Fold:
Amino acid sequence: MQLTADIIARHLGGDIDGRSDVEVSTFAKIEVARQGDITFLANPKYTPYIYTTQASAVLVRRDFVPEHPVSATLIRVDDPYSALASLLELHARHIQPPRPQGIEPQSYVAPDVEIPEGCYVGAFSYIAQGARIGKNVLIYPQCYIGPGVVIGDDTVVYPGVKIYYNCQIGQRCVLHSGVVIGSDGFGFAPDANGVFHKIEQVGIVRIDDDVEIGANTTIDRSTMGATHIERGVKLDNLIQIAHNVTVGHDTVMASQVGVAGSTSIGAHCMVGGQVGFAGHIQVADGTSIGAQSGISKSIPEGAKMMGSPAVPWSEYARTVAAWKKLPDALRLLAKLEKEK
Structure:
């Protein structure tokens, strides 16, 4: 895909500062971009690179004022990151392979399952009896769709996804390779001799519309009722959601988050990588949690938490500042003890 800065600016509703006829064909990070690339500046810490980048065009905020000459053409937009996302979507439509259709002969579809027109079922995929598949659903090779599973319109199920019986997937969802939906929750009870016996998990997983789930993420079925992922949730790769968890709408989680059973996470939360949640706690709407935090108790609405155990961000920052002074404090203490 080759576009001029003028075409890009008109597509984004932006303004041009520099040559409008400069052409770009690829995307690159600002620090390594070369001629013919387009890049963006959204994070202020990358500002020095705009004066050295070899990119042909750079997306910047409308109010950006360069302190030194810039060789690249600047395309001024309201939000460079959102503008980049729009361009990447446009570019993806040109480079992605054609949309597959039809049922490949090496797949198995149970006789009572209707596959609507516009759907695709890849080789070595298995769709069990009682499953309901919506319109324009893509099921790539080597997927397992269990008995009674419901998949909504326009959902994409990438290779190697496993969806256990009776689980429900909404419309326009994306399940990346290796996702497992509906495996048993981790429920065992010891008897009088300390021998653990399985507690049957008879609930389901219910995933609402417009959810995206990253590769090798697992979501356990509930003991009773449903493990519920609400509309618009975005889960990164390698996340574990345990039984009876609820994740509120439009919440995002980075890689390697683990949520223990029966915890409820609110809407519009932002969760960094490797955060661990204890079970049976409530995390209110709008909570932000920094990477590698340990959440052992419920969190009030709109809090910003960090650390393990997690504390409010301001308290964590003061603690880190104190840690940095600890070696000097220990040396001073040792000196004072010697002077006694």
Notes: The domain at 102-313 is CATH 2.160.10.10 (UDP N-Acetylglucosamine Acyltransferase; domain 1). The chain has a mean pLDDT of 95. The chain has two domains: 3-95, 102-313.
